[in-house]
Automatic annotation (TrEMBL):
PROSITE patterns: BON (PS50914). Residues 53-120 form the BON domain. This is BON domain-containing protein. InterPro entries: BON_dom.
């Protein structure tokens, strides 16, 4: 049988609202939490960081395609954990190599999955 003292200073502090609002995107320190809860919070933060990295990689690819004036249209990029899968039709092998090289030069790319098809001549 566990005894619990009521009205302790710690219990009173936990019931009082914080003096300042916490942003929803602020990282939460998992230090000192029970193992399962700490693992859950750290896993969430890791997934959010990967998602943010993938989104920034997608924006860099879009900007690079515009900057390099890639003429191929209808290309699709799927990015997960830095792996870039590219789909679409290209006119010839030179255009295919130019697109794959452009992707490879982007920081954060860990793997390229080529699903490009040569257009029928």
């Amino acid at each position: 049988m566990a005894l619990r003292a009521r009205g302790t200073a710690l219990e009173d502090r936990c019931q009082q609202p914080t003096a300042f609002p916490v942003a929803a995107s602020a990282p939460v320190s998992a230090y000192g939490l029970p193992g399962p809860l700490r693992a859950l919070i750290e896993g969430f933060q890791e997934r959010r960081a990967r998602t943010t990295a993938d989104k920034s990689l997608a924006l860099r690819l879009k900007d690079a395609m515009t900057r390099e004036q890639v003429t191929a249209r209808g290309l699709s990029f799927y990015i997960e954990h830095g792996a870039v899968a590219v789909y679409g039709n290209v006119a010839d092998g030179a255009e295919r190599e130019a697109i794959l090289g452009l992707i490879a030069r982007q920081p954060g790319v860990t793997r390229i999955v080529d699903h490009l098809r040569l257009a029928d001549a």
